[in-house]
Amino acid sequence: MTRVRTGLERVAAGERRIGGARAGLITNPTGVLPDLTPSAPALLAAGVPVTALFGPEHGLRGTVQAGGGEADAADPDTGLPVFDTYGRSGAALDEVVASSGVDVLVFDINDVGTRFYTYLWTMYDLLASAGRLGLRFVVLDRPNPIGGVRVEGPLLDPGFAGFLGRLPVPIRHGLTAGEMALLAGRRLGVEPEVVPMEGWRREWYFDRTGLPWVMPSANMPTLDTALVYPGTGLLEGTNVSEGRGTTRPFELIGAPFVDGRFARELAALGLPGVRFRGAWFTPTAGKYAGTPVRGVQVHVTDREAFRPVLTGVSVLHVLRTLYPEDFACGPFLDSLWGSDSLRRALEAGEDPRGLCGSTGWSGPPEPLYR
Questions:
Q1: Domains of the chain (ranges plus CATH)?
Q2: Crossing angle between the packed helical segments 223-232 and 308-322, to the nearest 10 degrees
Q3: pLDDT digits over 318-367, tens only?
């Protein structure tokens, strides 16, 4: 197998230089070399003058569940100050970056390829901050783990832009962090620098890259999770458990009001590349923690045929059809979907699967990989 070489590896090997007097590194546990050396010591060993670290959602060390970051502190391994960026943007984020004293920001985090995952929007906000503060911004590129060919889901309605999406891209967007940075730079009037990977092909899933999988967050344990997440992640906007607090988050779906009809109706749809197994589970955290619930496990049988967004919307449709008195969704679903069209269709009892047509997305204006 030909192994992909990440942007971090190229800088650590001395092939590309970052320069600057004081570098601020934006990273988390996914920022590693193939031998699992973290990016901060790897860059320091390569002579990059890293003087500050910045953590995204879940924190620099990845210890925090969704919706939080780790407090500012000192990194016990490098002694460098750590700044929490989660929940900050605009002037508040500028203040954090300015207080760090850096003159270049370096981004090294592996994303999961879904618009409503927040790491690329942390990158977007820090790129905007770098533009306002006159700092350079460098992206050490990494693979999109679910590939760069297939896209799915609607483009974000600008009226629903926020930390789950800043740019009008599909839910499954097919971009790498470097490509998203270039797209963001056009919007912001800033020119990021990208250290591209070597050897990555757009059709590759992460397990083809030869790189080690490191959990991007606590509820993203495997590539299987990342593959279903663009669809089953929509369950977070409902009163149905998306499997948080289990060993198969986003693959297990259930609620106390679900019965055996749910698995049978999903199987009858004949959705491409996926099967549904009736399942019981008891979440240890999140919705229905400590309560046995009934539902399904999602089993992807053919990656190439599987359409995660269509699958997720179909799950919502079946839930609304079978359990109209119990199933509920709220405004958070709008943020995930990128508009209120899905929620309105569900609340009206309409079939929302027609919303899963063409994305209208032509791909990155400056693709870095073919």
A1: 7-208 (3.40.50.12170), 223-353 (3.90.1150.140)
A2: 50
A3: 999 999 999 999 999 999 999 999 999 999 999 999 999 878 888 787 89
